Amino acid sequence: MTKMTHVDFPPKELVSYTKETQTPTTTAQKEVEEEDEEAPAPPPAVEAEKEKPVETQEEEVLHELTEEEKLQILHSEEFVNFFDHSTRIIERALSEHVDVFFDYSGRDMEEKEGELQAGTKLSLNRQFIDERWSKQRVVTCLDWSPQYPELLVASYNNNEDAPHEPDGVALVWNMKYKKTTPEFVFHCQSAVMSAAFAKFHPNLVVGGTYSGQIVLWDNRSNRRTPVQRTPLSASAHTHPVYCVNVVGTQNAHNLISISTDGKMCSWSLDMLSQPQDSMELVFKQSKSVAVTSMSFPLGDVNNFVVGSEDGSVYTACRHGSRAGISEMFEGHQGPITGIHCHTAPGPVDFTHLFLTASFDWTVKLWSTKNNKPLYSFEDNSDYVYDVMWSPVHPALFACVDGLGRVDLWNLNNDTEVPTASMAVEGSPALNRLRWSQSGREIAVGDSEGQIHIFDVGEQIAIPRNDEWTRFVRTLAEINENRDDAEELAAQRLAA
To answer: How far apart, in whole angstroms, are the C-alpha atoms of residue 411 and residue 363?
Structure first.
């Protein structure tokens, strides 16, 4: 008698990592599920043994990089771009300071209310300086970005104590974050006397140099040196360029530059190899005008005003039968250091007004309709280095002087003394100033390479609805007083 035992051997399991074999067919789905339920889970040791070859395979792939390979990665364009971008972000994050103890019940604000009222007119917000790139260099020019209002470009003269560093430097600072390092560092071989963001091209920065070259930097490039530059030839500039300005519209714009020998050039930003147009600024065919400053009225690309080394002011135009110098305005006893046309748009047109600053310690108000100054502001006791109208308030302007003083003048309130003044600590000479587009901040550059950002209080910065009509009355009073003074002077002369 024999006993038979039935043994059911499962088919051999084939392990595959292809998608097709892992997806069971609908007919065999149930059988596979039943087999999975019946089959006991493999012990951990078996799983480890199965996975072991894979780990070994991975270990074989990963190997230690050689020094040469590391250097190759460090110098690759992809790594440099990544590192440059990441560094900026980390710097911004590390520099943020938040008051975790702020009391939202209002007690903190009650305690600070007196302080806020005391400093509402003009207060120092922050300062920018770089130990290597800007310290001991004179700030020669400032400009806010039209596309990114938080970005400010500053140009710098050479540092005599660092002969091995580049003579010319331009730094882009960021107001949005608390970091103390520049967003971008640009430099060139000659001291940068003027700088501007290229309007309609947010990535480009233009610089005018002491050698006469116009240089163009691009923040998309990893290079700190210019991506384009003009030639040092008779067709371009060969004297220092103190004035650069991009004028026009999105589809038709030019870079305008003027050098101290009176040569004015018009350039296309796409090609700086030669100017599109050039002219000599000469008054009455006799002497060339040594231009130190330039300004275009709001919305005008043809007419402009320039200040000169001899203290005279000139109106000029780029095109037409009377292209060149039109009229001369006399009144200053020293070189013109700054000039600015009225820019605040509103119900009344004040584009005929402009301001000048000079070495003769004065700021003067002019109109293109009269070749004598309308008014002279004589509250300073040193050279006045720069002056600029508020971009939003019709009667407000700011000026800076050699004693480290910033003055705000609201002509609707007073024409004899400034509405607000503040002296910078250490009294460095303040060379340049620039209002922000909002009219709420003023950037000021000094002779030691530092930039000071001042907040202007709302009650002084933001105009009321009647400011334009009030300014019309103010100008009428100024003209009346000037006429009376001229009449009195004529009577004394006759006597």
So the answer is: 13
Cβ atoms 201, 267 nearer than 8 A = no
Beta bridge partners of 418: none
User: Taking Cα atoms as reference points, which of 31, 37, 27 lies closest to residue 11?
Assistant: 31
143-148 — which CB contacts under 8 Å span 24+ positions?
143/195, 143/196, 143/197, 143/434, 144/197, 144/434, 144/436, 144/437, 144/443, 145/197, 145/202, 146/197, 146/199, 146/202, 146/437, 147/197, 147/202, 148/202
Compute the distance between CA of residue 182 and CA of residue 129 in angstroms, rounded to an integer. 9
Say if residues 443 and 153 touch (Cβ distance below 8 Å): no
pLDDT value at residue 4: 62
- Separation of alpha carbons 347 and 353, rounded Å: 15
Answer CATH for 119-494 from 3.90.1150.10, 3.90.420.10, 2.130.10.10, 1.20.120.1630? 2.130.10.10
Give the pTM: 0.75
CA-CA distance, 366 to 361, in Å (whole number)?
16
What is the per-residue pLDDT for 14?
55
- Per-domain boundaries in the chain: 119-494
* pLDDT tens track for 147-190: 999 999 999 999 988 889 999 999 999 999 888 899 999 999 99
